[in-house]
């Protein structure tokens, strides 16, 4: 997911839809590993235009990972194919307009990571009227007319975060105490599933949730964290954060308050958070393979444009899906995850400020 500032508020109907939304692990079981087959295995037979709609630029993954990986995969599959790209900048109405523009330009398939999963159903409706299939990318769109879902197991993400936090607290001898939860926006179905996975583990281990907020907006999360530090003080034994943006917001709030840092979780394995983990600030993050997700989306998009029906490995709300399995990232396995997969180079991670920590942890 900064899985990182997100959606506008929606009404009771949206909340009801979200509550009934997918639990990614509750659908048919995904394969044990993401589809790592080469994009070149599904060559296109003619040129198409594919639309890619991403939700925001505050999540660094979208511009630095998802977009370039998707465009490269499409180009490998179909040298003459074109990708039309647009970013919603955290605006559901803007994303709607971008989709309409792409449909007008004749895209054969739309790949949409929605800013608002409920509002984006109108995009699916418009595309269906023009016989254009829509792939929900990373986050679910609340529509039964989706062609495919390409995503990650986000309930598992929450479970990994919650378990890492519980294990750390137990290791530190903290058997009880309070956790402040910085959850993602309630209009993001992924955030709903992440929260469920984390809450089940944290509360199941006997830790009390002191308070919570639902937002992907970093400044809002930081303001909330600061207010909770003032309210609860040393009752706070950990900050559960649904993503790296909120994690860094919590760390900034703790530093500003002169509070000793407590374990803080995250998601997206951003470079800033990987370095924060090395510095002993953020405790962990969760890594989903951006390349694997983008390549799978490109492959399915080209197959759909060719009139083919890809064989899905999972199902989400009755919609065929491909779901990747996430990995927890701590200081112990940075080299074996994001560096091994080429998300970052050693030089990018191990700048002069972090060189000593890298050497101490075998990152060379």
TrEMBL record:
SUPFAM superfamilies found in the cross-reference section: Periplasmic binding protein-like I (SSF53822)
Gene3D superfamilies: 3.40.50.2300
Compartments (UniProt record): Cell envelope
Primary localization: other
Signal peptide: 1-33
Top-level taxon in the UniProt lineage: Bacteria
Periplasmic binding protein domain: residues covered: 50-309
PROSITE patterns reported in the protein's UniProt record: PROKAR_LIPOPROTEIN
Keywords: Signal
Alphabetized InterPro entries for the sequence: Bact_Solute-Bind_Prot2, Peripla_BP_I, SBP_2_dom
PANTHER family linked: D-XYLOSE-BINDING PERIPLASMIC PROTEIN
Protein name (record): Sugar ABC transporter substrate-binding protein
Organism listed in the record: Microbacterium soli
């Amino acid at each position: 997911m900064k899985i990182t500032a997100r959606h506008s508020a929606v009404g009771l109907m949206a909340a009801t839809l979200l509550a009934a939304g997918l639990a990614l692990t509750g659908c048919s079981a995904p394969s044990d590993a993401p589809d790592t087959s080469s994009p070149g295995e599904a060559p296109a037979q003619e040129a198409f235009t594919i639309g890619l709609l991403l939700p925001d630029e505050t999540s660094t993954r979208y511009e630095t990972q998802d977009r370039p990986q998707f465009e490269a995969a499409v180009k490998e599959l179909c040298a003459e194919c074109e990708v039309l790209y647009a970013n919603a900048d955290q605006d559901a109405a803007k994303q709607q307009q971008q989709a309409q523009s792409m449909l007008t330009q004749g895209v054969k398939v739309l790949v949409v990571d929605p800013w608002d999963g409920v509002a984006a159903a109108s995009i699916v409706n418009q595309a269906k009227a023009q016989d254009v299939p829509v792939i929900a990318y990373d986050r679910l769109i609340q529509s039964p007319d989706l062609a495919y879902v390409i995503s990650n197991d986000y309930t598992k993400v929450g479970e990994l975060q919650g378990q890492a936090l519980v294990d750390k607290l137990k290791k530190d001898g903290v058997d009880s105490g309070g956790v402040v939860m910085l959850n993602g926006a309630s209009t993001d179905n992924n955030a709903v599933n992440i929260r469920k996975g984390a809450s089940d583990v944290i509360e199941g281990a006997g830790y009390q949730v002191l308070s919570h907020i639902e937002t992907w907006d970093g400044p809002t999360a930081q303001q909330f964290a600061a207010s909770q530090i003032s309210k609860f003080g040393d009752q706070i034994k950990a900050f559960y954060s649904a993503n790296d943006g909120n994690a860094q917001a919590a760390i900034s709030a703790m530093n500003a308050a002169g509070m000793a840092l407590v374990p803080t979780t995250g998601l997206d394995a951003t470079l800033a958070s990987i370095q924060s983990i090395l510095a002993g600030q953020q405790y962990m993050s969760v890594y989903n393979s951006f390349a694997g997700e983008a390549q799978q989306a490109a492959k399915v998009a080209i197959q759909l444009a060719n009139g083919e029906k890809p064989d899905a490995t999972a199902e989400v709300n009755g919609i065929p899906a491909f779901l990747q399995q996430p990995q927890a990232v701590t200081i112990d396995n940075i080299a074996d995850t994001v560096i091994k997969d080429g998300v970052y180079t050693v030089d990018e991670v191990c700048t002069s400020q972090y060189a000593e920590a890298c050497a101490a942890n075998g990152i060379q």
